[in-house]
Write a structure and sequence with these properties.
The protein has two domains: 250 residues, Aminohydrolase, N-terminal nucleophile (Ntn) domain (Glutamine Phosphoribosylpyrophosphate, subunit 1, domain 1, 4-Layer Sandwich); 188 residues, Rossmann fold (3-Layer(aba) Sandwich), CATH 3.40.50. 29% of the residues lie in helices and 24% in strands. It is built from 18 helices and 23 strands. The strands form six sheets. Strands 3-2-4-1-10-9-11 form a seven-stranded antiparallel β-sheet. A six-stranded antiparallel β-sheet has the order 5-6-7-8-12-13. The longest helix has 15 residues. GO terms for molecular function: amidophosphoribosyltransferase activity.
């Protein structure tokens, strides 16, 4: 996520992980590049690729840097990354700062060899684990909890028969949300936290296997989606095929997938745990129309994650659906507007209203969330300045009331507008004619029988969480 997008949405995205193992010995760096490109929406601060040759010297070659995938990598750098097994990562910093040292994958060399690790998520016990390691002599090169995971895997490997056994032993110590893609010199390992908070899936193209945060990245490399990695599952991919270890799994009723993957994070064309993201957002829009009907002339969505929910609202209500905004897709890292006073101009750089679409009309505007309220207020002003006579706001998530400790950059309570204001007060503050949030009990409509985490709305965390914000604990 660019600094501008953080200003514009008020919400930080997660990270994306991708791995590839070509059993025929061909270089995988180009495939990892395209996989990361498809996951760019999950992290835009830094990226990296690490590869190894399973038949050669079995050392890792890596490149990582700050910026988008196409800024860090080009044809020449990809050609230098020779190897048929590798992992990649795109990062948005939910823990640790924006610096090149914190870019992933992490490559560690230790007495048993080497590992490359890419991680999406946050640990809730990272601070205590890090202190424990420091007191036994560990020296950290980064400020991210992913390095804590790497250290524990490396230490457990000293007393483990295999790398996957070391991963399992490390999983018994770490608590929180994680999807891991790990490469040893001869195998690729994927691991998902027992709650299933972070997504991870498997793909295959001929004799090449893939692991990815979302199925859209599997499609991007022209591979076939095989299945999701199950909550608590460790999959090991070797020349002999795929092996599964479910010993870390927990009962299904305790699983807690992040509901915001379906509301906002995931790309619209992805499929996570059997649920099509597009369909989930259509159902969210229909639920909003059912709960908060209104007389209006046009339903519009705020790009990008509000668009499909707006279509669902339109289908249920019978109010026509229209495109009221032009989104500038070429806003890069140049436009940095970190101050509150600059937020309005930042929104106008990113979004513009199409006046002839909204002039003289009563508008239903659908968006995925309201965090601080500033962005929503600016967009409503833009719509009314362009001639909209009424703006009725519908939000496809419930009000944010609690911080997230699992990798979603939901701000602290003091910054959450819903934490200290009623819905009516928020409506007045943003200038909407009416305001309706998704009702808590209707979230299940989006995902059917899947168990999910809605702690940022309810405060019902699936595990014990720290009593303080840990997102910048290591900086």
């Amino acid at each position: 996520m660019t600094d501008l997008e953080r200003v514009s949405t008020g919400l930080g995205e997660e990270c994306g992980v991708f791995g590839a193992y070509d059993m025929d010995g061909r270089d995988v760096a180009p495939s990892i590049y395209y996989g990361l490109f498809a996951l760019q929406h999950r992290g835009q601060e830094s990226c990296g690729i690490a590869v190894t040759d399973t038949e050669g010297k079995r050392r890792f070659l890596s490149r990582k840097g700050l910026g988008h995938v196409n800024e860090v990598f080009h044809e020449g750098t990809l050609e230098e990354l020779k190897g048929n097994l590798g992992v990649g990562h795109v990062r948005y910093s939910t823990a640790g700062g924006t610096r090149v040292e914190n870019a992933q994958p992490l490559v560690i060399n230790y007495v048993k060899g080497a590992l490359a690790i890419a991680h999406n998520g946050n640990l809730v016990n990272a601070i205590e684990l890090r202190k424990e390691l420091e007191y036994t002599g560990a020296i950290f090169q980064t400020t991210i909890d992913s390095e804590v995971i790497a250290y524990h895997i490396a230490r457990e490997r000293l007393n483990s028969r295999t790398a996957e056994e070391a991963v399992k032993r490390a999983m018994k110590k770490i608590r929180g949300a994680y999807a891991l893609v790990i490469s040893s010199p001869r195998k690729m390992i994927g691991a998902r936290d027992p709650f299933g908070l972070k997504p991870l899936c498997i793909g295959r193209r001929d004799n090449t296997y893939f692991l990815a945060s979302e199925s859209c990245a599997i499609t991007a490399v022209d591979a076939e989606f095989v299945r999701d990695v199950l909550p608590g599952e460790i999959v090991t991919i070797t020349a002999d095929g795929i092996a599964s270890d479910m010993s870390m799994a927990m009962p299904e009723e305790k699983q807690a997938r992040c509901i915001f993957e379906y509301i906002y994070f995931a790309r619209t064309d992805s499929r996570i745990d059997g649920v099509e993201v597009y369909h989930a957002r259509i159902l969210a829009g229909r639920a909003l129309a059912e709960s908060f009907p209104v007389e209006a002339d046009l339903v519009v969505g705020v790009p990008d994650s509000g668009l499909v929910a707006a279509k669902g609202y339109s289908e249920y209500s019978g109010i026509p659906y229209g495109m009221a905004f032009h989104k500038n897709s070429y806003v890069g890292r140049t436009f940095i507007k970190p101050k509150q006073s600059d937020r309005e101009s930042s929104v106008k750089i990113k979004l513009n209203v199409i006046p002839e679409v909204v002039r003289g009309k009563r508008i239903v505007m659908v968006d995925d969330s309201i965090v601080r309220g500033t962005t929503c207020a600016n967009i409503i002003r833009m719509l009314k300045s362009a001639g909209a006579t009424e703006v009725h706001v519908r939000i496809s998530s419930p009000p944010f009331l609690y911080p997230c400790y699992f990798g979603t950059d939901v701000p602290s309570n003091e910054q959450l507008i819903a934490h200290s204001h009623t819905t009516e007060q928020i409506r007045e503050m943003i200038g909407a004619d009416t305001l309706g949030y998704m009702e808590i009990d209707k979230l299940k409509n989006m995902v059917g029988d899947l168990k999910y985490c809605d702690a940022c709305f309810t405060g019902n965390y699936p595990m014990e969480v720290p009593g303080e914000d840990i997102s910048h604990a290591f900086e």
